[in-house]
Amino acid sequence: MQGLLPAWLAAVQIPISCALVGGVGGITYCLRGVYLNACVRKQWDAAWHPWYYIRPIVSFICGAVSFVFLKAGLLVLDATQKPDSNLLGFYALAFIAGFNVDKFVAKLEDIAHATWGIEKSRVGQDKDK
């Protein structure tokens, strides 16, 4: 696609792609939740509707944030580097960040604590108990 995109869009193509891949991860998780709760467990609860709408948006954001943390070197991919696999690592992490937002945010809190001494949020502290 090189040369097909305007320069301003080409400059942010990878972060936008990471955000989109994170969104796909979140949507995949939501669809799985619908299937499990409505069809398998027969425990559909309308109280969870806001979660099904908000989760893909949060996943989209986490996908973009995963790019920032990888680019900054605060998250490192340990897999062996192969030619042209660099973007796949970005996209794989973005998908995981979107798919499992809770663990991704917990990891970011761990990094913030270790790097800058920032304490975990109340939600993060509650999960440790």
Question: What does this protein look like?
Answer:
It is a single chain. The chain has 6 helices and no strands. It is globular, with a radius of gyration of 17 Å. The chain is mainly α. Helix 2 (13-40) runs parallel beside helix 4 (86-99). The chain has a domain at 14-99. 71% of the residues lie in helices and 0% in strands. It has helices at residues 7-10, 13-40, 49-71, 86-99, 101-116, 122-128. The mean pLDDT is 88.
What is the C-alpha radius of gyration, as a whole number of Å?
17 Å
Which sequence of SSEs, written as H and E, runs from N to C? HHHHHH
**Euclidean distance between termini CA atoms:** 48 Å
Q: What share of the residues does DSSP label as strand, in percent?
A: under 5%
Q: Give the helix tally.
A: 6
Shape: globular
Q: State the major sheet.
A: none
Global mean pLDDT: 88
**Quaternary form:** single chain
Helical residue percent band = over 70%
Overall structural class, as computed from helix and strand content, comes to: mainly alpha
Low-pLDDT sequence parts: none
Strand segment count: 0
Brief write-up:
The chain is an all-alpha fold and 129 residues long.
Primary descriptors:
129 residues; single chain; 6 helices; mainly alpha
Helices and strands in order:
Layout: H1 7-10, H2 13-40, H3 49-71, H4 86-99, H5 101-116, H6 122-128
Helix pairs in contact: 2-3, 2-4, 3-4, 4-5
